[in-house]
Automatic annotation (TrEMBL):
Keyword Repeat: yes
InterPro entries linked: Annexin_repeat, Annexin_repeat_CS, Annexin_sf
Domain of life: Eukaryota
UniProt cross-references to Pfam families, sorted A to Z: Annexin
GO cellular component terms given for this protein: cytoplasm; plasma membrane
Molecular functions per Gene Ontology: calcium ion binding; calcium-dependent phospholipid binding; phosphatidylserine binding
DNA repair as UniProt keyword: no
Keywords annotated in UniProt: Annexin, Repeat
GO terms under biological process: response to cold; response to heat; response to salt stress; response to water deprivation
PROSITE patterns according to UniProt: ANNEXIN_1 (PS00223), ANNEXIN_2 (PS51897)
Protein name, as recorded: Annexin
Length: 274
């Protein structure tokens, strides 16, 4: 669920433009509004990263294509970040959105994932593939086997949700718990992220937000990516998952780790939390 509140009736664009113009002319112009000017000049960073606002103004497909492109350029310095962005874009968004991204970033992702009808699930396939996943993960400890890759990369989201539910019923543990317990290495982490992005993206993105603010400093690229890209999709669910898992709120952690206009802009996208 989105956290973006749209006024009713929606004000004319000309009114918004005039409000921005007046704010920028005033002596008490906030650093957040000042950041708008810097989009054109590219000068300075007034108390935060104007890149968050720049990303927000983009079409969603253009934004995700830019995020993937930048992560690929940084691959040698931070391969895990690159992989995380690729998984998020290819698994946590709708097929139509992914097609738009593919058009902008040629053949980044090689297959179209059918979204699936929530009412159409092949239960025979569910039983078979839940067993195959358990065999690969629990007994062989090979999450990178051909069967695992085939199942995760070709089945619809509704089919996968049913398969992972059957896995939990038959084997007494969530598939992501078994991945943590029985497997290790980069592919295991990739598989866990893919499972979450495909079936419970709020779990993945809550974890990414927490990771971005742990320790000294803030991973602004990571924090910006999640809040800007999920504000119109499922930020309310991410906030709730974050509250339950970490016993605090996204708002509180953002306030504690960011400042000035950057903080204000992120909080506007996160939305009000009681």
């Amino acid at each position: 669920m989105s956290t973006i509140a749209v006024p009713s009736p929606v004000p004319p664009a000309s009114d918004d433009a005039e409000s921005i113009r007046k704010a920028l002319q005033g002596n008490c112009c906030s650093s957040c509004m000042h950041s708008c000017c810097l989009m054109e000049s590219g000068q300075g960073r007034p108390g935060g990263d104007p890149r968050a606002m720049i990303l927000w103004t983009m079409d969603p497909a253009e934004r995700d294509a830019n995020l993937v492109h930048e992560s690929l350029k940084k691959k040698q310095r931070d391969e895990s970040h690159c992989i995380s962005v690729l998984i998020e874009v290819s698994c946590a968004f709708t097929p139509d959105h992914l097609i738009d991204v593919r058009r902008m970033l040629v053949r980044l992702v090689s297959s179209y994932r059918y979204e699936g009808d929530d009412e159409f699930v092949d239960m025979d396939v569910v039983r078979l593939e839940a067993s195959q996943l358990a065999e690969a993960i629990r007994k062989k400890k090979q999450p990178n086997g051909d069967e695992v890759i085939r199942i995760v990369t070709t089945r619809s989201k509704s089919q996968l949700r049913a398969t992972f539910q059957r896995y939990r019923e038959d084997h007494g543990a969530d598939i992501t718990e078994d991945i943590d317990s029985h497997c290790s290495g980069q592919f295991a982490r990739m598989l866990k992220n893919a499972v979450w992005c495909l079936t419970s993206p709020e779990k993945h993105f809550a974890e990414v937000i927490k990771h971005s603010i742990l320790g000294l400093g803030t991973y602004e690229d990571m924090l910006t990516r999640v809040i800007v890209s999920r504000a119109e999709i499922d930020m309310k669910m991410i906030r709730e998952e974050y509250r339950v898992r970490y016993k605090t709120t996204v708002t509180r952690d953002v306030v504690g780790d960011t400042s000035f206009g950057y903080k204000g802009f992120l909080l506007a996208l996160v939305g009000r939390e009681d």
